[in-house]
């Protein structure tokens, strides 16, 4: 019999972890939902963002929360250039070509990471003093609380951007129908450039947040991609709210599930949910609403 | 673009991504075809092939292992009539790379002997290669016993304390605490690997037999980065003595998470997890009090310890108050076994070396021992010395010895707020 207090603490820890999962998956979800591109390099872009933050922290001692901004800016530029000069040549050329290009990019980023930064695990400290926080009988990690709050801000900010700005409206219109958007005078090429920029910027920001909690190596890309992919499938492609809910469900399921099944089942739990949703509700819990619903 | 047929497209995507993901996560691993080994080098030179993890997750130990091997080979060159040549390559902490590197070295050189890397994962990869090529293999940093019993080892010998020795040493360590103050609640975090299970069984059997309560035994995925659930479970179960054998850098990550969750055991012993010098460089004072069982610790005496210390200081230098990192001793001990084997065999023929390994007794920096036919150190001959991190060094705390490299076992670990 698992103690109620333990379940409560694991549930809260799962929520905190789920927020991180959600922000790690958000960029992937947007790019998938709006551009119909599965960004197989998303996890590796996250890794690059983490390293930007770690390097800044190591060099200056500045908290990775500031590094997160730099990581997002760097990855935003990278994403825009990637779309403008590489992906635009393969988007619309069938399902496989973008996947193959991005798979290749992932391998390149992983190899560059290993060559330039070595394969040792690296991490950054949050750099903000703070003690563990007690909520009832549960004790929660201060860095996780901070990263969770920042993750929520990023998710809500993305949602608000898509919902309330003209550019966001253009992005959603493009997601619903590219040809109709073009008839309305929207430059869909630029929308795609911007979308991939936002998606990769979110990956960079997520990487910076993760670097405060977990060690980063050049090889973490695949595992974060798979986790992010599970969140996207669970929540529904292109849905900001779905990504958040999907992340929270995954985090809680893992953390509470292992209390009964054991820690060796953590990935089995998350990928069983992934497979279950694919079989029962392939469109995900929130379906596809073109982002920013 | 999202069109009406997008759900079909997405299902196709998912299948494609799933297949590519599987390929990606397996790292396009290929099979290494083992050719005929080139054993039995010429009499003028003894050629040793070794891999060390200079990069990857075990990289924080690679330099120390390499230094131990190199110091050991220097000593061999003084002791033996033939020249000893050490071929050494970075295995990137990958079993596949171990196999590839050994294949390349054995194919291009007359290799007489192979020395293992670090951890059960890498050492067993090297030993499998050696067994297939009929070459003597010496592997330290390898506490896992089962392969010795199950794999029909003929060429693999492990001069290193094993799981049973680590469990006995843990009991000895705890007996250093006065009986009235001694904690009784043991928690075991078990990595979901063969060695994880074996070590947890050994701890449970030895300590429950000695009157301790095993209040928690929970598995976790090797390579796991989130220990929050285990920490909550340990807190809830009132774990006082926490034992585990996480791979680096998992141990470091878990201590950071213990601090951020404001929980600490009274005794912490991380076999292999707290071995590397990166433990202190990453954690600093947060890493104090942690114990480890790295096979060799700086306070040991006899068996060539003085010569090794002098050679190390001469070659690499030691700052005031600095002790030699533990992996150096474990690796140096491998070279000592090799040297004594060659001297006893008076030959470099693999079969003669094998006979010597099976019949001789060895005296090295980790102690005196002989081997069983399956390559295990003979039961009960080796003590697994325990070190404890204190002021940036791994000091000997068990066995209870005197000397500048030894300290009294620091107990209990204070709460985070009292450090």
Rg estimate of chain A, integer Å: 19 Å
- Mean pLDDT, all residues of chain A: 90
Largest sheet of chain B: 5 strands, parallel
Run of helices and strands of chain A: HHHHEEHHHHHHH
E-strand count of chain B: 14
Largest beta sheet: strand ordering of chain B: 2-1-3-4-5
Portion in beta strands of chain B: 15-25%
Helix % of chain A is over 70%
Task: Give the number of helices of chain A.
Answer: 11
Q: Your description of this structure?
A:
The complex is a heterodimer of chains A (293) and B (419). By secondary structure, chain A is an all-alpha fold. Chain A is built from 11 helices and 2 strands; from the N terminus they run ααααββααααααα. Chain A has helices spanning 4-35, 42-60, 64-85, 96-117, 142-164, 166-176, 178-183, 188-211, 220-235, 240-261, 266-280; strands at 133-135, 138-140. In chain A, 72% of the residues lie in helices and 2% in strands. A two-stranded antiparallel sheet of chain A has the order 1-2. By secondary structure, chain B is α/β, with parallel strands linked by helices. Chain B has helices spanning 6-25, 62-79, 95-108, 119-133, 146-150, 163-174, 194-209, 228-236, 250-260, 278-283, 305-316, 326-345, 350-359; strands spanning 45-52, 83-90, 113-115, 137-138, 156-157, 185-191, 213-220, 241-244, 267-270, 291-292, 361-364, 367-370, 386-390, 393-398. In chain B, strand 6, helix 7 (194-209) and strand 7 (213-220) form a beta-alpha-beta unit. The radius of gyration of chain B is 23 Å and the shape is globular. At the A-B interface, helix 1, helix 4, helix 5, helix 6 and helix 9 of A face helix 1, strand 7, helix 8 and helix 9 of B.
